[in-house]
């Protein structure tokens, strides 16, 4: 029988009945979407376990870390460098939320036409249903899109430990200098929070741990080039989602284990879907847990997803950091270089992202690209038009979808996705 975590949630000041309702929906969704899949790799059992304990065991581990005086830092963006957090002797967890919650309450603080991701983050705070948020010693926001920038001004009145990182919007020399300065400022903030001075050795170790995590996901991504695809897009997405809050070493080991299994599957010509199933690349806004709506629609409509051009996906994990530097400054330079390559749509101009989408579509043998934009997300929706033009000029079919976290449009989306899959199957 599963442990009763009620006293733990109570100690975090959570709203227990609202939280029960959330967990009920999450468990049901997981059963219907994940456990209903066929031909899953056995190694996904680990991620099923992680999800069944998502607000239980992992939170207990984090609270145990806190008892040992280790600080927990929460973040909403892949620009927050985990390397620095680990080097400071703290733990980083992702806080982005993928479900609507307390919408009426949220709309008292934010305009209705705000993207679901931002609204969801507020809903989880206002509804007191996120134990990660409640156990964080520091919450890091970032000046990325206008929605987030302004939302953090309001969020600062709801939490007492918000730290906001500034970010460049242009990939210029000045932009890179700003990013490095902000990483230096963040390093000082982590040192102040933890009381630990970050040393060259600690930073090298932090880089090594994070590189290993990312390398495991690169390995997984490369295996998805095979036909038949050895793993579903839903399962691969889950691994990318769990990346943000699992223990790093355990995560790396679990992903590598799945990769070992997938290598055998590929040799034996086994797939999650039959060979020649139409292959889709998803591109656009990040999908945080439990946002599985669009991938579920795609993979129950006759196609398989072979890659995610998103921050929960390859955009977030693409590059490793050079760890050969011998001084703090050389190491800070090295990961400034690494993070500066992240091609979020907040950057202008942002041709790199279109180029990456083309590269990924070709490398993964995608028959088409589905661009996923959250409603009211200006950066990604605006960028989706040039992205579509670039792809179609190269003969790569593209469909642009705008949606939110609601389920009202599932029927309509399914009809559109089925028509697109039929078109790319010809
Ligand atoms: S680096 S993608 S994680 S900012 S969906 S809140 S952009 S209006 S999430 Fe992101 Fe960092 Fe960029 Fe990645 Fe705004 Fe759009 Fe909402 Fe978004």
TrEMBL record:
The record, for Pfam families, names:
HGD-D
Q: Which family does it belong to?
A: Belongs to the FldB/FldC dehydratase alpha/beta subunit family.
Can you say what this protein is called?
A: 2-hydroxyacyl-CoA dehydratase
Q: Which domain of life is it from?
A: Bacteria
């Amino acid at each position: 029988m599963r442990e009763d975590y009620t006293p733990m949630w109570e100690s975090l000041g959570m709203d227990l009945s609202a939280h029960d309702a959330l967990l009920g929906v999450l468990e049901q969704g997981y059963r219907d979407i994940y456990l209903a899949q066929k031909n899953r790799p056995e190694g996904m059992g680990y991620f099923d376990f992680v999800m069944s304990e998502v607000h239980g065991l992992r939170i207990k581990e984090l609270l145990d870390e806190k008892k040992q005086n280790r600080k927990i830092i929460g973040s909403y963006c892949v620009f927050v460098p985990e390397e620095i957090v680990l080097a400071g002797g703290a733990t980083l967890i992702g806080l982005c939320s993928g479900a609507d919650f307390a919408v009426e309450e949220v709309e008292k603080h934010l305009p209705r036409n705000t993207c679901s991701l931002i609204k969801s983050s507020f809903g989880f705070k206002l509804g007191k249903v996120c134990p990660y948020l409640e156990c964080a010693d520091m919450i890091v926001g970032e000046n990325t899109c206008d929605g987030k920038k302004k939302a953090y001004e309001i969020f600062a009145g709801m939490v007492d430990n918000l730290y906001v990182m500034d970010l460049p919007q242009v990939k210029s020399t000045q932009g890179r200098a700003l990013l490095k300065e902000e990483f230096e400022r963040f390093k000082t903030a982590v040192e102040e929070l933890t009381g630990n001075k970050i040393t060259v050795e600690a930073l090298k170790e932090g880089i090594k741990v994070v590189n290993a995590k990312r390398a495991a996901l690169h390995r997984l991504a490369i295996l998805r080039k095979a036909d038949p695809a050895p793993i579903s897009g839903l399962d691969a997405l889950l691994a990318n989602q769990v990346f943000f809050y699992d223990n790093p070493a355990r995560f790396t080991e679990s992903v590598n284990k799945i990769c070992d299994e997938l290598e055998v599957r590929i040799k034996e010509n086994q797939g999650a879907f039959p060979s020649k199933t139409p292959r889709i690349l998803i591109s656009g806004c990040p999908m945080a847990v439990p946002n599985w709506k669009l991938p579920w629609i795609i993979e129950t409509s006759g196609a398989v997803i072979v890659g995610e051009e998103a921050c929960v996906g390859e955009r977030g994990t693409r590059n490793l950091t050079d760890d050969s530097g011998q001084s703090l400054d050389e190491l800070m330079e090295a990961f400034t270089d690494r993070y500066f390559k992240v091609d979020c749509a907040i950057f202008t101009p942002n041709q790199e992202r279109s180029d990456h989408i083309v590269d990924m579509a070709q490398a993964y043998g995608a028959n088409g690209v589905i661009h996923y934009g959250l409603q009211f997300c200006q950066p990604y929706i605006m960028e989706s038009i040039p992205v579509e033009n670039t792809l179609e000029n190269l003969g790569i079919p593209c469909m642009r979808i705008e949606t939110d976290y609601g389920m009202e449009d599932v029927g309509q989306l399914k009809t559109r996705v089925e028509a697109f899959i039929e078109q790319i199957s010809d």
